[in-house]
Amino acid sequence: MTTTEQSPAAATGPDAPRRRGRRPLAAAAGLLSAGVALGVGELVAGLMGPQSSPVVAVGDTVITLVPEPVKAFAIATFGESDKIALVVGTLVVIALYAAVLGVLALRRRTAGVAGIALFGLVGAAAAATGPAGGPLDALPALAGALAGVVALLALLARLTVPTAGAAQTRSDDDGAPLAERLRASLGAGDRKGAGLDRRRFFLTSAAAAGAAVATGGAGRLLLRRFDVGGARADLALPAPASPAAALPAGADLAERIDGLTPLFTPNREFYRVDTAITVPQIRPADYELSLTGMFDSPRSYTLDDLLGRSDVIERDITLTCVSNTVGGRLAGTARWLGIPLGAFLRENGIRSGSDQLVCRSVDGMTIGAPTRSALGVEDAMLAFGMNGEPLPVEHGFPVRMVIPGLYGYVSACKWLTGIEASTYDAFDAYWTERDWAAQAPIRIASRIDTPAPLRRFPAGRRAIAGVAWAQTRGIGAVEVRVDDGPWLPAQLSPQVDADLWRQWVLPHDFAPGSYQLTVRATSAEGEVQTEERAEPFPAGSSGLHSIRVNAT
Ligand SMILES: Nc1nc2c(c(=O)[nH]1)N[C@H]1C(S)=C(S)[C@@H](COP(=O)(O)O)O[C@H]1N2
Ligand SMILES: [Mo]
């Protein structure tokens, strides 16, 4: 590139105020160019596959790199909208960067070109080095950057139309050759007498905005080709050889109590926690689960291998996230269909030296589960069905792990494609590397669902109700305290399985007034839920759920 500096005369002469007026337009040019770059990047990614999308790859990289406290804050603050928050935050950063680039490029085209090139290289590197990425996946980001450069130069050319006096020295003024050619080909080069061609700038802007939206939209549409929703709908699940324990009639207290969490969480409402910005799409026909590491006879399994086994089980298990705060909603219950994990591992000759299973998902996540639990916890499974359907894509289609009694981040690997029998000494999994506890049994917990905190309700008799869980141990009792009164025993939903949460209800006569309600659970083994408060990091929250309610 030749020099792109304006002549000193232009900076300080009569033209200077006009250039200042151009700055907001240059910032807009930067923004539009970024839009074109992102749009074209998505279009090329649409042709190549989701793993090559620069936007997603950069977002994934940001998630991997942000320090743990920030991530914990994001999950605590935005909950399941954490990824939307990330995408919005990233777009804001990109927008600021692009606006500044636009202004810089007004004086120095090379700065603009270099800035966009850098932007493209970051996207290219992120996509090419992603878990499903290869060198070719750099293409969309590079194509996007190139389109962004063309857009930026074309837009800026509208802001630096040579004046009559400067016409002869045009090439010294802002002589980027590409800009020259673009300007000539776009028909602005012959316009004289004004430093700024607003009309043409806005026309070019409209074209750039249109191109950004059209390419980005087309890219998104093309990416839908990779969605596995159709293949999922076509998948036939086997009948279980061992069905779930029968539930007695009326087992679900929520049928009678307003505001109480239902015994089974519908798939659509099931909490979702993972680091995937776009949900991994695995075609059933392409699915492969490979066993590696400390097995005597490691091998790979197709989905049909797993679905066709004769030992399919169906179990009701409550899943819980370690990030759940006291009274929080990051827990859900489903009827899972799958194969027993312990039998499967033994069949493949898992060696006694392994104390950690490194579970790998197609998106590069590693989840380290204790081998002892995988082998020894009853009903640990490789699940492919959830509440009577194939696993929803967001919940790990086609296969995930479920181990009752362990928080999801050390047991419930979704989009599971590999199990390596390993040791804790040999490998730190994703969350362990980020200082979460390597081993994390679910803590006994209870929650008040109704009445809702701070809500006013008419005085009189009314149900206090909620859920409590202590997977693998079972819930033995739940008690409620009103203000500083005695602990009052609540009535429990039938005990069906220790891995299933239990609903509880306590009818109570409320005189008008304000009350502090507190709940505590005791496991079937007699462990009383501690009132000692702990934050979710690093091994799960503890403390009693306590809310203020008002009867009027
Ligand atoms: N591949 C993958 N599996 C994952 C995670 C993830 O980020 N990636 N998150 C884990 C965590 S922290 C939890 S709590 C559970 C949540 O499962 P769900 O989203 O189906 O509720 O999945 C686990 N499995
Ligand atoms: Mo989690």
From TrEMBL:
A Pfam family assignment: Oxidored_molyb
Domain Oxidoreductase molybdopterin-binding: residue ranges: 278-431
The entry's keywords: Membrane, Transmembrane, Transmembrane helix
Domain of life where this protein originates: Bacteria
Residue ranges of the TM segments: 25-48, 84-106, 113-132, 138-161, 201-223
Gene Ontology biological process terms from the UniProt entry: sulfur compound metabolic process
Cross-referenced InterPro entries: Ig_E-set (IPR014756), OxRdtase_Mopterin-bd_dom (IPR000572), OxRdtase_Mopterin-bd_sf (IPR036374)
Molecular function in Gene Ontology: heme binding; molybdopterin cofactor binding; sulfite oxidase activity
Region (Disordered): 1-21, 523-552
Name of protein: Oxidoreductase molybdopterin binding protein
